[in-house]
TrEMBL record, chain A:
The keyword Cytoplasm applies. SUPFAM superfamilies: ARM repeat. PANTHER family: BRCA1-ASSOCIATED ATM ACTIVATOR 1. This is BRCA1-associated ATM activator 1. It is found in: Cytoplasm.
TrEMBL record, chain B:
SMART domains: Beta-Casp. This is Integrator complex subunit 9. It comes from Pleuronectes platessa. SUPFAM superfamilies: Metallo-hydrolase/oxidoreductase (SSF56281). Transmembrane segments: none annotated. Residues 548-574 are annotated as: Disordered.
Length: 731, 658
């Protein structure tokens, strides 16, 4: 409503501003927040533009109303601005009875305002509150640090959109914030400033914030991160003292740590030390936290005891270590990083999450450093040893992470150079994974299967002969698929086979070409058969070329024989499955071939003529109940056929004739006459459809919906056995 | 109250507490680390060990080739291994009244104390401690006697000679306190002096103190002890654990409010978390078996092995080790496995409840039933028929100097497929392996020590709040190798009192009260008068009767009516001076009122002088002084008895008489 100036005038004249201001401290957070939003909106939306006129971008309505009402409207606006400014000024500083709640709300409102305020509104607002803000900063309320930083950042961001230098008052405020005496607030403020991403404009404050955030690491690890830099020296004592208290120590270190990766990416002149030193400090910290302080001569031992064994710091540092891998100049440290990570993997006290994070860090570093050959054989051996130990761990989470790591390691090393092969050397990881296939925990089995897929994939496709080991793996996987009681494992096996199967559409098209050759051989010389290699059928109307050559009875029986051959060779299956393939070129090719086949073996009987191809029409093939078979049967024409055959089968069974029969087991799999299929598939329409670009279907919402429907239908059809509950797993 | 410290080993303590009139020995630990300086005792002839060269000093002056052998650049004593006994010279051990045992690991020196020092007292221990302690001693004797060695090396102990030896032999101390193992006879005699106690049972010692064992959660029947009189309480904390393993959980609350807490037996592996180590143990074991190697676990025949077997029971399936045989070889293997199942009341709650179900508390019974775990008294006999590799063998002794483990070291040491996993924390694994070097076998060190760590003990002490803590000096500083780890030491206020071998500590509390009983008829005769609301006092005249450290006030018996004999008459002529005691005075003399009274009695020339303790009244006319002080009044008056008496009576007017 308040996007119309008339409404605004009404709003002001009805004196709604005052109750809104009161609602700001309502006990309901929703009400208070809504009041804040409305107030901010009121001021910001109708704020005068930089050139002194009212701006209301994008609203046609505004131009109509602003003319003529400008004068009283402007008065209304000024009065609202006056009221709100007065309120801000009065309520910013906490009073005894209201506590900090009101100040927090006012600060939130200010942040909302400043984020979108342009000149002169921003100037007016800052003018009103700058002194009070300074006072608030000086008072040092810890809870107010984050909202104060929000205000500063909001002021910074709005000033940048106006493309002018930051306001002096804001700069001063920021300086005071980066100079608070309370260590946790100081670090909070510095962290907020860097998070705000405003550091590109303000080198002085950015450099200071960086130093503040590095100070605790400097103190704890004794690494000279700050060198001779003394800008934050006055805080050293208070921060040291705070670090000696366990709770504040852990949280402070974690805040500082999480900001180190972005710090290392900053321009060098903002940093007090090369980024590598920060990495060294993180590594030292990791050593300290794992209890290994033997190598450290400097650093504060009173702080060590707060950090030793702290899982939170371990996890945080490992994440940061992962993050640091992409910073400049770090690659030389690979050996040191790997040493620490192996130590973490080896540590009996590392909990599963820590081990998981160590693996992730290791993978990241190995993938970033193209050349892992710089690692000595000792490291490789150490890594192999620790991995071998961890796959035998008592905790399944650890075994799972380890197995997963092996899979990903294969992926990482695949991208790298040949030299990596030595480390990967499937020869040591594959037996471990094969062993893990027997793990009692289904998650581990599933991970082992996927890892195997990743490890064996390269050798699988190189065209090399299949080794005994690979055969064994496949045998074992088939066992899992048929016998495992857990779905995770079975699912992973299926995914494995999918990963191993060739998904390349060109290969599939070539496969269809093979089918075509077989067809050529079987049907050449028959009536109406066009050699696929002679003329691409898609270029002509399929019915246009029909050989006028008369056909004898013998030839007819030959057609039936040829068709039977094609069924036996699997050509018909290949064509049918190709027809419903998700790759359009494959579908197209299959469709073309099927049309050829149809026209050859079972041309439409001319009206009135008796079926000359009776023998061929009796040749049937089996349609599987699932997969492509089901897809085929979903084609509308086929559904009709199914229904007809349902009736037919009853009839024929009575007559002792079997043209379509249900196989004894499965029930779902159906034998259908090939000719019936070919004539029911609607191949001509399908051909037109497939000749079009795939985009028009696949990009539509319809395809998504169909996807969902297919998925759900697939689910019910597969699992809905009578009397068995369908369990939908949401893994 | 004094504490004599006879052992410097923090986890194998032996201290003597003199408390009131009793002398109490707290634990009787045997430091067996001395055996690491000896050559292993092989069960079958070992060509390797017998071919080791003897040691001759570089200049050739000292030739000890018969006593010392060199192996892998270290020198070992070729003799029956010897143990380092608790100090015997610090005090006369025959005066010891009782020995309190806290767990079966801390009683191994018992025969040395009870059999050779003139000890006549009693040993108190819980039943599992006695039974399993007996097993461990029996095993030790068996290990030694099975491989008798006639030679007893003593020349190297000569101070002048020892100085010239290479380390670490050069640096070992108290070598003359080292003794060979006791015999089964001595064991039986020593254990016959043990009296069984149950948790929280109170045992009176000569009426002077009461001792009581509390569950310490470390091993079956392990206990801490409370030693208390009516007004003093000493807590003795030995190996204790807060982890949930098989024993009953630790009783912490009963340790509260002690004047002195003697703290020993903390974990020897403060940086090795038992859970992590157990995981490490299992994964290394599985890794070796999968690779076709054998696993050797040198361990004691009771204790952590129960937990290891329980852990493996769960792990076997997940690591697909179902067909791998587990062998437990010890002269007492069978008894150990069976004993553990019958001490129901000493087990943790979880296991206790299983006793009432048709399943045994420990799952190792099932391992035995399903033939996955087999136990044998030694490698000879049935074992050699059943032995199948790859396998896992649990056997002793963890020092690798004697027992069946020596055989497996010789058998498997040469193959890198095999692994030895150390789980007992008592011995440095590098030292243990030294006489087997060079060794191809993989070595894994997973010391599992469930005793309290520094973090747990600080929390415990914060809760039980003893006034003073006494502990081995090792606990008052960070470990030598990790000087930065200030978290690996005790930091207390007031700081703990450290002790070392041969320290004698005066425990910092004075006994101030003693309980005295009063007989009813005597109590009846008392006439209490109230001095403050709620507080009454009465004088009592009685005879203090002390017997068995119990003090009783009895009425003074009236002299019997004199028989008319001449002899008696003479006695009657000098009757015992039994005068009624003078009444006790209490209260204070108020100065102003007293001056007024003096005035009334005509003494007016009084000069009052204020002193630190009260006032001095100078009666100038009579040259007399009256000193009025908080706890006494003196009248200094020469040669004027009437005045003194008057003054005395005036003073008495202001005081209450009892």
């Amino acid at each position: 409503m308040l996007q119309h100036s008339k409404a605004f005038t009404f709003f002001v004249q009805a004196d709604f501003i005052v109750p809104l201001l009161q609602l700001q401290t309502d006990s309901s957070l929703f009400v208070a927040s809504a009041a804040n939003q409305t107030l901010a909106h009121t001021l910001v939306f109708f704020q005068p533009g930089g050139n002194g006129t009212f701006k209301n971008p994008g609203k046609v309505e505004r131009t109509q109303t602003s003319i003529g009402v400008e004068e009283p409207f402007s008065q209304d606006y000024s009065s609202v601005l006056g009221t709100i400014s007065q309120f801000l000024k009065e309520s910013l500083l906490p009073k005894e009875n209201t506590g900090l709640h009101q100040s927090q709300q006012v600060l939130k409102l200010l942040a909302l305002l400043l984020a979108r305020a342009r000149q002169p509104l921003r100037d007016k607002l800052l003018g009103t509150v700058a002194d009070s803000l300074q006072e608030l900063v000086a008072a040092g309320y810890s809870q107010l640090t984050p909202p104060l930083m929000d205000i500063i950042l909001a002021a910074y961001s709005s000033s940048s959109t106006d493309d002018c230098v930051p306001d002096q008052r804001v700069t001063r405020l920021l300086s005071s914030m980066l100079n608070i005496t309370k260590p946790s607030d100081l670090i909070g403020a510095a962290a907020a400033f860097l998070r705000g991403g405003r550091h590109h404009q303000d080198a002085v404050h950015t450099a200071r914030a960086v130093r503040i955030l590095l100070l605790p690491l400097h103190i704890v690890t004794g690494q000279t991160l700050l060198g001779t830099d003394t800008t934050v020296e006055e805080h050293r004592f208070s921060i040291s003292e705070k670090l000696k208290i366990k709770t504040s120590c852990v949280s402070m270190i974690c805040v500082c740590l999480t900001h180190t990766p972005p710090i290392t990416l900053m321009p060098g002149d903002l940093l007090p030390c090369p980024p590598v030193s920060i990495l060294t400090a993180v590594l030292s910290l990791l050593r300290i936290v794992s209890g290994d302080s033997s190598s450290l001569s400097s650093g504060c031992s009173e702080v060590f005891r707060n950090l030793v064994g702290s899982g939170k710091v371990q996890k945080c540092s490992l994440e940061v270590l992962t993050g640091l891998s992409s910073s400049p100049g770090m690659k030389d440290k690979l050996t040191e990083v790997v040493t620490v990570l192996i130590q973490y993997l080896n540590n009996p006290d590392s909990d599963p999450t820590v081990i998981h994070k160590s693996y992730q860090a290791l993978l990241k570093w190995m993938s970033v450093c193209e050349d892992v050959s710089s690692l000595t054989d000792k490291f490789k051996q150490d890594l192999i040893d620790v991995v071998k130990k961890r796959v035998c761990d008592m905790r399944w989470e650890v075994r799972d992470s380890t197995v997963e790591f092996l899979g990903k390691l294969a992926g990482v090393l695949k991208q790298g150079e040949e030299t990596c092969g030595a480390l990967l050397g499937g020869c040591w990881s594959t037996p471990l994974l094969r062993e893990a296939l027997q793990d009692p925990e289904s998650y581990v089995r599933a991970s082992a299967i996927s890892a195997l897929a990743q490890t064996l994939e390269p050798s699988w496709h190189q065209g090399a002969a299949v080794t005994q080991g690979q055969t064994d793996v496949v045998t074992r996987l088939l066992e899992i698929l048929s016998q495992d009681t857990e779905a995770f494992a079975r699912r992973a096996v299926v995914q494995y086979f999918i990963a191993c199967a060739d998904l390349d559409w060109e290969v599939k098209v070539h496969t269809l070409e093979l089918a075509q050759l077989l067809m050529d051989e079987a049907c050449s010389g028959h009536r109406g058969y066009r050699k696929g290699s002679d003329t691409p059928p898609a270029l002509r109307h399929p019915y246009a070329v029909i050989s006028a050559r008369p056909l004898g009875e013998g030839a007819e029986s030959d057609v039936a024989g040829a068709l039977r051959n094609l069924v036996e060779q699997g050509v018909v299956w290949a064509l049918l499955s190709g027809l419903v393939d998700c790759d359009r070129p494959v579908g197209l090719k299959a469709c073309q071939l099927l049309i050829t086949l149809r026209d050859t073996v079972c041309p439409r009987p001319p009206p009135g003529a008796s079926p000359a191809t009776a023998a061929a029409s009796k040749v049937s093939c089996e349609l599987p109940g699932c997969g492509w078979g089901r897809e085929i049967r979903k084609i509308p024409g086929m559904r009709r056929l199914d229904r007809v055959k349902e009736a037919d089968v009853a009839h024929r069974t009575r007559c002792g004739e079997v043209g379509i029969e249900r196989t004894s087991e499965g029930g779902d799999s159906v034998c259908v006459s090939v000719c019936d299929i070919l004539s029911s598939l609607g191949l001509d329409e399908k051909l037109d459809e497939l000749s079009q670009s795939s985009d028009h279907v696949h990009n539509s919402a319809l395809s998504l919906l169909q996807d969902i429907l297919t998925a759900s239908a697939a689910h019910t059809q597969q699992d809905a056995e009578p009397g068995q509950e369908v369990i939908v797993d949401c893994y | 109250m004094k504490l004599y410290c006879l052992s410097g080993h923090p986890t194998l303590p032996c201290n003597v507490l003199k408390f009131k009139s009793t002398t109490i020995m707290l634990d009787c630990g045997l430091d067996t680390t001395s055996v690491l300086n000896f050559l292993p005792l092989p069960l079958v002839h070992s060509p390797r060990l017998s071919k080791l060269p003897g040691w001759v000093s570089k200049d050739g002056n000292i030739n000890l080739e018969k006593e010392l052998k060199e192996c892998a650049k270290r020198v070992f004593v070729d003799s029956q291994p010897e143990f380092c006994l608790p100090e015997k010279e610090l005090l006369d051990l025959s005066n010891i009244d009782v020995i309190l045992i806290s767990n079966y690991h801390c009683m191994m020196a018992l025969p040395y104390i009870t059999e050779h020092t003139g000890f006549t007292g009693t040993v108190y221990a819980t039943e599992p401690t006695l039974q399993i302690g007996r097993l461990l001693m029996e095993e030790l004797v068996n290990f030694m006697e099975r491989v008798p060695k006639s030679q007893s090396a003593t020349c190297w102990k000569n101070k002048e000679v020892q100085r010239m030896l290479p380390g670490p032999l050069k640096d070992v101390v108290d070598v003359w306190a080292w003794k060979r193992c006791y015999s089964m006879l001595e064991v039986n005699s020593a254990l016959s002096k043990v009296q069984l106690v149950g948790y929280s049972q109170k045992v009176e010692l000569f009426g002077a103190v009461q001792v009581s064992p509390l569950s310490s959660g470390y091993s079956l029947g392990s206990s801490n002890w409370i030693i208390q009189s009516h007004h003093e309480k000493v807590a003795y904390v030995s190996g204790s654990s807060l982890l949930t393993t098989h024993p009953q959980p630790m009783d912490q609350s009963s340790l509260k409010n002690s004047d002195v807490l003697i703290l020993t037996g903390l974990t020897q592996m403060p940086t090795a978390n038992p859970d992590g180590m157990l995981g490490e143990f299992c994964s290394n074991l599985a890794m070796t078996i999968r690779a076709g190697g054998n696993v050797l676990v040198p361990c004691y025949s009771s204790g952590v092995i129960y937990d290891l077997l329980e852990c493996l029971y769960q792990f076997i399936e997940s690591a697909s080790l179902g067909t791998t045989p587990f062998y437990f070889i010890s002269p007492v293997a069978n008894s150990s496995l069976e004993f553990s199942q019958i001490f129901a009341e000493w087990l943790c709650h979880n296991k206790q409840s299983k006793v009432y179900l048709p399943e045994p508390p420990f799952p190792h019974a099932e391992l035995i039933q399903t033939n996955k775990l087999k136990h044998y008294p030694s490698i000879h006999g049935d074992f050699s028929i059943e032995f199948r590799q790859p396998c896992v063998v649990f056997t002793g002794h963890p020092s690798l100097r004697f027992g069946d483990v020596v055989h497996f070291m010789e058998l498997w040491g040469k193959s890198s497929l095999n692994t030895i996993i150390f789980t007992e924390p008592d011995f440095s694994y590098l030292d243990a392996l030294a006489p087997y070097q060079p060794l191809a076998m993989k070595c894994v060190y997973c010391p599992i020590d469930t005793r309290l760590n520094f973090h747990q003990v600080s929390k415990l002490l914060k809760e039980v709040q003893p006034l003073h803590v006494v502990c081995p000096e090792q606990y008052t500083q960070p470990p030598l190798t990790q000087s930065h780890r200030s978290d690996l030491m005790l930091e207390l206020q007031p700081p703990p009192m450290p002790y070392r071998r041969c320290s004698v500590l005066n425990l910092p509390f004075r006994r101030r009260y003693e309980r005295v009983y009063i007989l009813p008829e005597l109590a009846n005769s008392l006439v209490p008068s109230e001095v403050k609301p709620g507080i009454s006092v009465a004088t009592v005249s009685a005879v203090l009767h002390s017997k068995d450290n119990k003090h009783t006030l009895q009425s003074v018996s009236k002299p019997p009516p004199a028989p008319p004999s001449k002899k008696r008459k003479r006695v009657m002529e000098e009757p015992p001076v039994v005068q009624a005691p003078k009444p006790l005075l209490s209260g204070a003399v108020p100065l102003e009122a007293f001056l007024a009274t003096l005035q009334k009695h005509g003494i007016s020339e009084v000069k009052v002088e204020e002193t630190a303790d009260g006032h001095i009244l100078h009666l100038q006319a009579d040259d007399t002084l009256i000193q009025l002080e908080a706890d006494g009044t003196h009248i200094v008056c020469d040669n004027n008895e009437p005045l003194r008496t008057t003054l005395r009576d005036l003073v008495l007017r202001f005081l209450q008489k009892l």
